[in-house]
Amino acid sequence: MELLLVVVLGLLYAAGIFLILRRSMVKLLLGIMLLGNGTNILIFLLGTITKGKPPVIGPDQNVFQDIYADPIPQSLILTAIVISFALTAFAIVLLKRVYALVDSDDLDDLNTPEEEDL
Amino acid sequence: MIDNHILAPVFIHLFTAILQLIAWRKTVTQRFLSVGGAFIGLLIAIRLFAKVYTEGSLSMHASNWEAPFSIVFVADLLAVSMVLLTAIAGFAVSIFSSVGIARQRMLYGYFPIFHFLLMGLNGAFLTGDIFNLYVWFEVIIISSFVLMTLGGRKAQLEGAVKYMAMNILASTFFLTGIGILYGISGSLNMADLSIRIREFHNQPLLDVAAIFFLLGFGIKSAVFPLYYWLPSSYHTPPSAVAATFGGLLTKVGVYAILRVFSLMFVPDEFTKNLLMVMAVLTILTGAFGALIKTNIRRLFSYLIVCHIGFMIGGIAMFTKAALMGAVFYLIHDIMVKTNMFLIAGYIRQVRGTMDMTKLGGLYKAYPLISLLIALVLFSLVGVPPLSGFWPKIYLFQEAFVGGQYFFIAALIIGSLVTMYVIAKLWADVFWKNTPEDQPVEDKFKELPPFKKVLLLMPIVLLCSVTLYIGLQAEHVVLAVDRISNELLDTSSYVKTVLGDKVFKK
Q1: Domain ranges of chain B
Q2: What is the CATH number of domain A2-51+70-104?
Q3: What's the pTM value of the predicted model, to 2 decimals?
Q4: Which residues pair with B189 in a beta bridge?
Q5: What are the protein's UniProt keywords (chain A) (predicted)?
């Protein structure tokens, strides 16, 4: 399980960085999304995976007696997912507006010459 | 000491923003709410600062859980100083916005978002939990995205794409760093981390985590290889927005570097050298970029980059005097940079353009206001005894003691170029006659008197704070001295958060 996640993690980071280095705005956005997902898996992986041990204290005990699955990485990932969802939604709307104005998907076309400044 | 009033600077802006959302599309009500809210925020910040200054650091634990398990808010002297400066700058920008922002932008919610931004800034300064810091950073960037794109002009959206991409990337790096840090230490509380990291002996892995944090904060604070988004986006939004961004947003990155590198990754030889190289190159590239710009706000954007290098250089040396210089420069820079962008907005009101080749004759038209602006420009350049001068003494002194001759050269070049471009700006905008083919459309003259006062008041306010920092530098030095002590010896911070039990072992 860990090995699979490590491979997926590496692939997500590599693909994300590759896409960010492209000139297209849509690919930039996709790259950022992949990187974000890669980060989430990284947190999950580094929080050490423990199977079938829910972090619940039994009715006849006062403290944890056994190794248990750490819930914190999952709450971190949940927060990160919600935040990146909002950011991605904003980014998609922004890119759509820019595409409508500039009529191009190329990041190099985003440099209006300085004379047009206010 | 535990005190729940720490959260007041965060909540005041949250409540202000909610009230403004209720008053949606009623721009007059929103303006009053904004100025009122920012003023109460200022009073709260002053009270918090006074309390921390006299009684020592305070902390707040969410739902009264004990420290490493709860989310904590910590108000040490560095944090409350930043909160106080944010409150002053926020109050000034809020007054300026009530006249300087077009009604159309207000209708689409400029003011609520502005207060959400201030809330995020205060939260980021006060939190004592590294993941919570990430969340506040996200609050800051999502509000700043909206402020940057509000209005939707072509140039604005073009700048926003770069700004958005780089900032989301910075957050991703930051989050990766947090993930690694949690993996190796199992804690997110910064005070707890500072203890646990000392017991962790896999230095290369720690360095990797440190580099991720440095990348994330470096993009935000616009240091050398990561700053390109800043000059290509900061000249696009309205001046009031640019003032908040230029004065505060990059400085949050510097604050985060100070916090993380003093508490967790105490700089070793490798980090110090890395930071020093970045600082020198940041100063040089920022300075040379500023040389060729004719648009006032583009020029200021490069000056922001240049002066970030001064602070990073101070952090890189990591001795007491160097940190004093860096923190003092941070305090001076927030006030002056905010004011510079407000002044750029004022110039645009007066002449309708920010292109230095098309401007001129402002001294003839408004001699008194021009002299006031000259005072701010002198502070920026660092003419003694104004505020930019004192931190540089510490930086120079410490660079000589530490034998950092490249940094000294960069400091000299950076200061010299700043002086040159500011002198050029003064000659072009204020002394030179208006170019003859250039029509003068003075919107400022047609404004009713109370609006003129509202536009100038924030500039006067920030200018007087700058003068205070410069002329009463001994007061600031007292605070800065304590801050740098706390940064070098973090035991008081750790004690505030975790209580005495840590040191009994």
Answers
A1: 4-497
A2: 1.10.287.3510
A3: 0.93
A4: B129
A5: Cell membrane, Membrane, Transmembrane, Transmembrane helix
